[in-house]
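Look over this record as teaching material.
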Amino acid sequence: MEIKKVIPSGYCKGVVNAIRLAKKTKQDNPGSDVYILGMLVHNSFVTEELSQLGIVTLDDSGTSKSELLDRIDHGIVIFTAHGISDAIKRKAVEKGLTYVDATCVDVLKTQNIIRSYLDEGYDVIYFGKQKHPEAEAVLSISEKIHLVCDEKMLDELKIDNDKIFLTNQTTMSYLELHDLFELVRKKYPAVVVEEEICNATSSRQKAISDLKDCDVLYVVGDVKSNNTAKLVDIGKKHGIKKVLLIQDYKDIDLKDTDGAENVYVTAGASTPPKLIEEVIAYLRTQHA
Protein backbone atom coordinates (compact mmCIF):
# COMPACT_ATOMS: atom_id res chain seq x y z
CA MET A 1 0.00 0.00 0.00
CA GLU A 2 1.23 3.47 -0.94
CA ILE A 3 0.47 6.31 1.47
CA LYS A 4 1.00 9.74 -0.05
CA LYS A 5 0.51 13.35 0.92
CA VAL A 6 -1.43 15.60 -1.43
CA ILE A 7 0.53 18.72 -2.33
CA PRO A 8 -0.44 21.41 -1.43
CA SER A 9 -2.35 20.82 1.78
CA GLY A 10 -2.61 22.35 5.23
CA TYR A 11 -1.89 25.89 6.41
CA CYS A 12 -2.34 28.82 4.05
CA LYS A 13 -0.69 32.24 4.42
CA GLY A 14 -3.79 33.80 6.03
CA VAL A 15 -3.87 31.17 8.76
CA VAL A 16 -0.14 31.41 9.39
CA ASN A 17 -0.41 35.19 9.68
CA ALA A 18 -3.41 35.06 12.05
CA ILE A 19 -1.72 32.59 14.39
CA ARG A 20 1.51 34.59 14.33
CA LEU A 21 -0.38 37.80 15.18
CA ALA A 22 -2.22 36.14 18.08
CA LYS A 23 0.94 34.69 19.60
CA LYS A 24 2.87 37.95 19.14
CA THR A 25 0.05 39.94 20.72
CA LYS A 26 0.18 37.79 23.86
CA GLN A 27 3.98 37.77 23.92
CA ASP A 28 4.17 41.57 23.59
CA ASN A 29 1.47 42.11 26.23
CA PRO A 30 2.15 39.53 28.98
CA GLY A 31 0.22 41.48 31.59
CA SER A 32 -2.92 41.97 29.49
CA ASP A 33 -5.90 39.70 28.95
CA VAL A 34 -6.14 38.70 25.28
CA TYR A 35 -9.40 37.52 23.73
CA ILE A 36 -10.33 36.24 20.28
CA LEU A 37 -13.80 37.10 18.97
CA GLY A 38 -14.75 33.70 17.51
CA MET A 39 -12.39 30.92 16.45
CA LEU A 40 -9.23 32.54 15.07
CA VAL A 41 -9.23 29.86 12.38
CA HIS A 42 -11.62 26.92 12.20
CA ASN A 43 -9.59 24.28 13.95
CA SER A 44 -10.09 23.17 17.55
CA PHE A 45 -6.42 22.14 17.92
CA VAL A 46 -5.33 25.70 17.11
CA THR A 47 -7.87 27.03 19.63
CA GLU A 48 -6.46 24.72 22.30
CA GLU A 49 -2.87 25.69 21.52
CA LEU A 50 -3.75 29.38 21.92
CA SER A 51 -5.63 28.62 25.14
CA GLN A 52 -2.46 27.08 26.60
CA LEU A 53 -0.74 30.41 25.94
CA GLY A 54 -3.43 32.20 27.94
CA ILE A 55 -5.45 33.49 24.97
CA VAL A 56 -9.21 33.19 25.52
CA THR A 57 -11.41 32.27 22.55
CA LEU A 58 -15.04 33.42 22.77
CA ASP A 59 -17.11 31.30 20.40
CA ASP A 60 -20.68 30.34 21.31
CA SER A 61 -22.96 28.96 18.62
CA GLY A 62 -25.86 31.31 17.93
CA THR A 63 -24.21 34.24 19.72
CA SER A 64 -23.42 37.30 17.63
CA LYS A 65 -20.02 38.99 17.54
CA SER A 66 -21.58 42.03 19.22
CA GLU A 67 -22.90 39.88 22.07
CA LEU A 68 -19.52 38.19 22.46
CA LEU A 69 -17.86 41.59 22.60
CA ASP A 70 -20.19 42.55 25.47
CA ARG A 71 -18.40 39.92 27.57
CA ILE A 72 -15.07 41.76 27.31
CA ASP A 73 -14.53 44.70 29.66
CA HIS A 74 -10.79 45.20 29.35
CA GLY A 75 -7.67 44.04 27.53
CA ILE A 76 -7.04 43.22 23.89
CA VAL A 77 -9.46 41.66 21.42
CA ILE A 78 -8.31 39.89 18.26
CA PHE A 79 -10.58 39.75 15.23
CA THR A 80 -10.38 36.48 13.31
CA ALA A 81 -8.97 35.66 9.88
CA HIS A 82 -12.49 35.63 8.41
CA GLY A 83 -13.06 39.37 8.65
CA ILE A 84 -15.08 41.66 10.91
CA SER A 85 -17.63 44.44 10.50
CA ASP A 86 -16.77 48.12 10.93
CA ALA A 87 -19.51 48.32 13.57
CA ILE A 88 -17.73 45.76 15.76
CA LYS A 89 -14.45 47.66 15.39
CA ARG A 90 -16.17 50.88 16.47
CA LYS A 91 -17.81 49.14 19.42
CA ALA A 92 -14.45 47.76 20.59
CA VAL A 93 -12.95 51.26 20.51
CA GLU A 94 -15.96 52.71 22.35
CA LYS A 95 -15.48 50.08 25.08
CA GLY A 96 -11.88 51.22 25.47
CA LEU A 97 -10.42 47.98 24.11
CA THR A 98 -7.34 47.60 21.99
CA TYR A 99 -8.00 45.48 18.93
CA VAL A 100 -5.81 43.47 16.57
CA ASP A 101 -7.27 42.65 13.16
CA ALA A 102 -6.10 39.27 11.84
CA THR A 103 -8.31 39.35 8.72
CA CYS A 104 -6.77 37.43 5.82
CA VAL A 105 -5.48 39.65 3.00
CA ASP A 106 -7.51 37.64 0.45
CA VAL A 107 -10.69 38.31 2.43
CA LEU A 108 -9.82 42.01 2.59
CA LYS A 109 -9.22 42.02 -1.16
CA THR A 110 -12.70 40.63 -1.80
CA GLN A 111 -14.25 43.16 0.59
CA ASN A 112 -12.46 46.03 -1.17
CA ILE A 113 -13.67 44.86 -4.58
CA ILE A 114 -17.23 44.70 -3.27
CA ARG A 115 -16.97 48.19 -1.78
CA SER A 116 -15.74 49.60 -5.08
CA TYR A 117 -18.76 48.22 -6.95
CA LEU A 118 -21.14 49.47 -4.26
CA ASP A 119 -19.62 52.93 -4.66
CA GLU A 120 -20.47 52.74 -8.37
CA GLY A 121 -24.13 52.02 -7.63
CA TYR A 122 -24.17 48.23 -8.00
CA ASP A 123 -26.13 45.68 -6.04
CA VAL A 124 -23.94 42.71 -5.07
CA ILE A 125 -24.82 39.01 -5.19
CA TYR A 126 -22.52 37.18 -2.79
CA PHE A 127 -22.25 33.39 -3.02
CA GLY A 128 -21.32 32.10 0.42
CA LYS A 129 -22.23 29.97 3.39
CA GLN A 130 -25.03 31.04 5.73
CA LYS A 131 -23.79 32.28 9.14
CA HIS A 132 -20.14 31.81 8.18
CA PRO A 133 -18.07 34.63 9.76
CA GLU A 134 -16.53 35.61 6.41
CA ALA A 135 -19.98 35.96 4.85
CA GLU A 136 -21.36 37.79 7.89
CA ALA A 137 -18.53 40.34 7.73
CA VAL A 138 -19.23 41.00 4.04
CA LEU A 139 -23.01 41.29 4.54
CA SER A 140 -22.45 43.90 7.26
CA ILE A 141 -20.98 46.28 4.68
CA SER A 142 -24.28 47.16 2.99
CA GLU A 143 -27.92 46.17 2.65
CA LYS A 144 -27.31 46.06 -1.09
CA ILE A 145 -25.30 42.84 -0.68
CA HIS A 146 -27.49 39.77 -1.19
CA LEU A 147 -26.34 36.41 0.17
CA VAL A 148 -27.03 33.42 -2.08
CA CYS A 149 -26.20 29.94 -0.77
CA ASP A 150 -27.96 27.76 -3.34
CA GLU A 151 -30.24 27.67 -6.37
CA LYS A 152 -33.39 28.10 -4.25
CA MET A 153 -32.13 31.36 -2.76
CA LEU A 154 -31.21 32.57 -6.24
CA ASP A 155 -34.70 31.78 -7.53
CA GLU A 156 -36.23 33.82 -4.70
CA LEU A 157 -33.86 36.76 -5.23
CA LYS A 158 -35.35 39.93 -6.74
CA ILE A 159 -33.07 42.82 -7.69
CA ASP A 160 -34.44 45.80 -9.63
CA ASN A 161 -31.07 47.44 -10.19
CA ASP A 162 -29.65 47.04 -13.71
CA LYS A 163 -26.16 47.15 -12.25
CA ILE A 164 -25.35 43.85 -10.53
CA PHE A 165 -22.00 42.49 -9.39
CA LEU A 166 -21.45 38.81 -8.53
CA THR A 167 -18.66 37.41 -6.37
CA ASN A 168 -18.12 34.81 -3.65
CA GLN A 169 -16.73 33.75 -0.30
CA THR A 170 -13.07 32.85 -0.69
CA THR A 171 -13.42 29.24 0.52
CA MET A 172 -16.18 27.94 -1.76
CA SER A 173 -15.94 24.96 -4.13
CA TYR A 174 -15.05 25.80 -7.73
CA LEU A 175 -17.59 23.20 -8.89
CA GLU A 176 -20.43 24.86 -6.98
CA LEU A 177 -19.21 28.24 -8.13
CA HIS A 178 -19.31 27.34 -11.81
CA ASP A 179 -22.86 25.98 -11.66
CA LEU A 180 -24.29 28.84 -9.61
CA PHE A 181 -22.52 31.55 -11.60
CA GLU A 182 -24.03 30.16 -14.80
CA LEU A 183 -27.50 30.31 -13.25
CA VAL A 184 -26.94 33.93 -12.19
CA ARG A 185 -25.84 34.85 -15.71
CA LYS A 186 -29.06 33.36 -17.08
CA LYS A 187 -31.19 35.32 -14.62
CA TYR A 188 -29.21 38.56 -14.88
CA PRO A 189 -27.42 38.56 -18.28
CA ALA A 190 -25.71 41.91 -17.66
CA VAL A 191 -24.14 40.80 -14.38
CA VAL A 192 -20.47 41.64 -13.80
CA VAL A 193 -18.61 38.63 -12.38
CA GLU A 194 -15.37 38.28 -10.43
CA GLU A 195 -14.49 34.89 -8.98
CA GLU A 196 -12.80 35.29 -5.63
CA ILE A 197 -11.84 31.77 -4.53
CA CYS A 198 -8.46 32.33 -2.90
CA ASN A 199 -5.39 30.64 -4.34
CA ALA A 200 -4.93 28.44 -1.27
CA THR A 201 -8.45 27.06 -1.62
CA SER A 202 -8.36 26.57 -5.39
CA SER A 203 -4.91 24.96 -5.42
CA ARG A 204 -5.90 22.44 -2.74
CA GLN A 205 -9.13 21.62 -4.58
CA LYS A 206 -7.35 21.23 -7.91
CA ALA A 207 -4.75 18.92 -6.35
CA ILE A 208 -7.56 16.53 -5.40
CA SER A 209 -9.18 16.78 -8.83
CA ASP A 210 -5.83 15.83 -10.39
CA LEU A 211 -5.53 12.54 -8.45
CA LYS A 212 -5.68 9.56 -10.83
CA ASP A 213 -5.14 6.51 -8.65
CA CYS A 214 -6.71 7.28 -5.26
CA ASP A 215 -8.61 4.53 -3.42
CA VAL A 216 -8.97 6.28 -0.06
CA LEU A 217 -8.63 10.00 0.66
CA TYR A 218 -8.28 11.25 4.22
CA VAL A 219 -9.13 14.93 4.65
CA VAL A 220 -7.70 16.21 7.92
CA GLY A 221 -9.52 19.18 9.38
CA ASP A 222 -12.18 20.56 11.68
CA VAL A 223 -15.89 19.97 11.07
CA LYS A 224 -16.40 23.75 11.33
CA SER A 225 -13.96 24.48 8.50
CA ASN A 226 -15.72 25.38 5.24
CA ASN A 227 -12.63 24.95 3.07
CA THR A 228 -12.09 21.50 4.59
CA ALA A 229 -15.70 20.52 3.86
CA LYS A 230 -15.26 21.60 0.25
CA LEU A 231 -12.22 19.32 -0.10
CA VAL A 232 -14.43 16.42 0.97
CA ASP A 233 -17.05 17.44 -1.60
CA ILE A 234 -14.47 17.72 -4.37
CA GLY A 235 -13.07 14.27 -3.56
CA LYS A 236 -16.52 12.67 -3.68
CA LYS A 237 -17.49 14.41 -6.92
CA HIS A 238 -14.14 13.38 -8.41
CA GLY A 239 -15.20 9.76 -7.94
CA ILE A 240 -12.77 8.70 -5.20
CA LYS A 241 -14.12 5.49 -3.62
CA LYS A 242 -13.71 6.57 0.00
CA VAL A 243 -13.37 10.17 1.18
CA LEU A 244 -13.07 10.44 4.96
CA LEU A 245 -13.04 13.60 7.09
CA ILE A 246 -10.94 13.15 10.24
CA GLN A 247 -9.73 15.62 12.86
CA ASP A 248 -6.56 13.66 13.69
CA TYR A 249 -5.06 10.17 13.50
CA LYS A 250 -7.24 8.96 16.39
CA ASP A 251 -10.28 9.12 14.09
CA ILE A 252 -8.82 6.55 11.68
CA ASP A 253 -10.51 3.17 11.34
CA LEU A 254 -7.97 0.93 9.62
CA LYS A 255 -10.77 -1.17 8.13
CA ASP A 256 -11.39 1.72 5.75
CA THR A 257 -8.08 0.97 4.02
CA ASP A 258 -8.71 -2.75 3.48
CA GLY A 259 -7.84 -3.65 -0.10
CA ALA A 260 -6.62 -0.14 -0.93
CA GLU A 261 -3.48 0.28 -3.02
CA ASN A 262 -3.17 4.07 -2.92
CA VAL A 263 -4.13 6.12 0.13
CA TYR A 264 -3.79 9.90 0.03
CA VAL A 265 -3.85 12.45 2.84
CA THR A 266 -4.82 16.09 2.39
CA ALA A 267 -5.93 18.82 4.78
CA GLY A 268 -7.86 22.05 5.01
CA ALA A 269 -6.06 25.39 5.04
CA SER A 270 -6.57 25.76 8.80
CA THR A 271 -5.15 22.33 9.71
CA PRO A 272 -1.81 22.31 11.62
CA PRO A 273 1.01 20.54 9.74
CA LYS A 274 1.69 18.39 12.80
CA LEU A 275 -1.75 16.74 12.49
CA ILE A 276 -1.14 15.87 8.84
CA GLU A 277 2.24 14.32 9.55
CA GLU A 278 0.84 12.33 12.47
CA VAL A 279 -1.87 10.86 10.22
CA ILE A 280 0.69 9.85 7.59
CA ALA A 281 3.06 8.41 10.19
CA TYR A 282 0.26 6.41 11.82
CA LEU A 283 -0.94 4.94 8.53
CA ARG A 284 2.60 4.01 7.48
CA THR A 285 3.33 2.40 10.84
CA GLN A 286 0.13 0.37 10.80
CA HIS A 287 0.71 -0.79 7.23
CA ALA A 288 4.45 -1.37 7.47
The chain is about 40% helix and 20% strand.
